[in-house]
Amino acid sequence: MSTRASDDHSPAAFGRIAIIGAGAWGTALALAALRAGRQVVLWAREAAVLESVARDRTNPFMAGITLPPAVAVTGALEQALAGADLVLLTTPSQHLRAMAGQCEGLLAPGVPVVICAKGVEAETGLLMSEVVAAAMPGRPQAVLSGPTFAAEVARDLPTAVTVAAAGGTFDSSHLAARVAVTFATTRFRPYLADDVIGVEIGGAVKNVIAIACGIAQGRALGSNARATLITRGLAELTRLAVALGARADTLSGLAGVGDLVLTCSSEQSRNFSYGKALGEGRNPRLDEGGPVVEGAVNAASVVALAGRLGIDMPICEAVDSVLRGASLDRVMMGLMTSGLRPEPLAAEDQVRIPHPASRED
Ligand SMILES: NC(=O)c1ccc[n+]([C@@H]2O[C@H](COP(=O)([O-])OP(=O)(O)OC[C@H]3O[C@@H](n4cnc5c(N)ncnc54)[C@H](O)[C@@H]3O)[C@@H](O)[C@H]2O)c1
Ligand SMILES: O=P(O)(O)OC[C@H](O)CO
């Protein structure tokens, strides 16, 4: 049984949490909040989820877990938000704007939201925090990210996350600090950050890199290839984050390296598994209404965002090309034979030596 971590100087925890989106992540976070002693209402969009919960307290998005009666589940958004003092937005990235807009019309002023989706909006190239700022003007917001397979959180396996919110020192009124104490237990440990952009870019881009690692796995390219993709993937997401105003060291934290390593190393990851299927020469389907594969949905928007900023992201570009139908072997050859360059981030744009095996340099 988990116990709540608190002390006399703790920021005030939020008491009643509305979780908007009963996919795997919303379901897992509902259990985490309940274990931390909070009242929880989970909003489900699908009739099939509501029927399944009514029948035997299970959720098709989270196999093998029985929801305790204390997690209230409803299909009525107004009911879910009534009396909430904190709202978690757990819908996938491309639906966040619409859900945030619906919530805004129903939610009391000043109630903060926590963004739990990882991605970049396809139509606008905006980060999730920017989407929410547009859909919920002036509303306090935080981002929760990090290495978190929902199924492990649901089973109460030890997990650490990053909670980021803007605003200087983490005093007791800081939103990140309040969200952290709301969720902290002996099995779920939040860390605080104020670099919202860095945290968001880590979560959005690692999904694309995980597809590349899955492809390498499916192609049996070996462990060296995977370590290279993770390391050079980190260089890519750090470059993009810094260009957007983030701090490079944020990307060495849980929401950067932590999530990148997790997602790039495990078939539990939907992004990694999707890439593996591609690498094996299969044609995996992205089912409307099925489990979300954010990297496949977001590769093009990450590449477009990087392009607008003039940031070189060869691995993300390679994944985007493969998703558009380019030959895997040609794309891999392109990655291996691009110009030779220094490794440290700070110097890598300064020198580019033509690769002897490439006719394009
Ligand atoms: N599953 C995880 O392990 C995990 C962990 C951390 C973060 N996340 C992130 O959380 C977000 C949600 O992922 P998930 O794993 O809970 O999803 P999921 O694949 O388990 O479920 C799909 C979700 O999409 C929702 N959905 C489908 N169509 C919709 C629409 N038109 N409008 C609104 N909602 C719609 C469904 O209701 C459901 O909540 C993603 O951005 C994901 O990257 C997931
Ligand atoms: O299963 P994935 O690939 O969507 O990854 C889930 C989480 O983002 C891991 O932190």
Any key phrases for this structure?
binds nicotinamide-adenine-dinucleotide, binds SN-glycerol-3-phosphate, globular, cytoplasm, 11% strand, 44% helix, eight-stranded mixed β-sheet, alpha/beta, 2 domains, disordered N terminus, 14 helices, N-(1-d-carboxylethyl)-l-norvaline Dehydrogenase, domain 2, Rossmann fold, 361 residues, Glycerol-3-phosphate dehydrogenase [NAD(P)+], G3P_DH_NAD-dep_C, 8 strands, glycerol-3-phosphate dehydrogenase (NAD+) activity, NAD
Brief summary:
GO terms for molecular function: glycerol-3-phosphate dehydrogenase (NAD+) activity; glycerol-3-phosphate dehydrogenase (NADP+) activity; NAD binding. With 361 residues, the chain is an alpha/beta fold.
Describe the protein.
- It is a single chain.
- By secondary structure, this protein is an alpha/beta fold.
- The protein folds into two domains: 179 residues, Rossmann fold (3-Layer(aba) Sandwich), CATH 3.40.50; 150 residues, N-(1-d-carboxylethyl)-l-norvaline Dehydrogenase, domain 2.
- Helix 5 links the parallel strand 5 and strand 6.
- The longest helix has 23 residues.
- The chain is globular and about 65 Å long.
- The N terminus is likely disordered.
CATH topology of the largest domain: Rossmann fold
Order of secondary-structure elements:
EHEHEHEHEHEHEHEHHHHHHH
Count of DSSP H/I helices: 14
| Unreliable segments of 5+ consecutive residues | 1-7
CATH superfamily of the largest domain: NAD(P)-binding Rossmann-like Domain
What's the Cα radius of gyration? 20 Å
